[in-house]
Amino acid sequence: MTWTGSASRWSPGSPPIRTETTCSGTPGSATGRATPPRRAPRRPVEPGSGRRGWRRRARRASLELIGLLTLLPADGGPVPGEIVEHQAHAIGHAAVLLADRGVLLAGDMLSDVLIPLLDPRRPDQVGAYEKALDRLGEAARHVDVLVPGHGAVADGPQVAARLAADHAYIDALRRGEEPVDARLDQDWLSGPHRSNLEQARHAPG
């Protein structure tokens, strides 16, 4: 006797997979043999992703640069440099000015790949971003190198260019216009950009 049964397999984050199992013999007997269920097709793996990709990139990292890192005080002591506080992007966000080294650590600001991202949880993020850029611009007068949390490091005239790009984006939002910004060529930023436009429409004049 041959019978066919079906079952669903599921793992978190994936839809159920229907499988078919064919057995020979009497259902419930110890002599039946089941053929393995058909496996779902493997998803293609993008080059450079996964553990091997990370390992390859890690091997290319410069150990000399890692050796230059300075750990923050474990006892809660003073942080090296000057904290540049502002209310833009996210609650508790800030930059760090290392004036003696001519470096500004900008956090999630002044990126060459990310547009300004307004915090939807707080009002008047357009105004907050304008004030934050003014503060970062003042700090940038003392540096030659800008290190954003996302994107490439900027130095020399590139620092002023980053500030100008973010100012232009925010100014366009303030005027109710569509910004002309090369970063918007990335499709995945269309959602955050729409959110920014919506927030700007409800910002106080």
Q: Fraction of residues in helices?
A: 25-40%
Largest sheet: 5 strands, mixed
Cα-atom Rg, whole angstroms? Answer: 27 Å
How many domains, in number, for the residues? 2
CATH top level label of the largest domain? Alpha Beta
Annotated CATH homologous superfamily of the largest domain: Ribonuclease Z/Hydroxyacylglutathione hydrolase-like
Order of helices and strands: EEEHHEEEHEEHH
Shape: globular
Strand content: 15-25%
Poorly predicted spans:
1-37, 44-50
Q: Number of DSSP helices?
A: 5
Under CATH, the topology of the largest domain is which? Metallo-beta-lactamase, Chain A
- Give me the side-by-side strand order of the main sheet: 4-5-6-7-8
Supply the helix-strand structural class.
alpha+beta
Query: What's the average pLDDT?
Result: 78
Q: Distance between the terminal alpha carbons, to the nearest Å?
A: 79 Å
Number of strands: 8
Write the CATH architecture name of the largest domain.
Answer: 4-Layer Sandwich
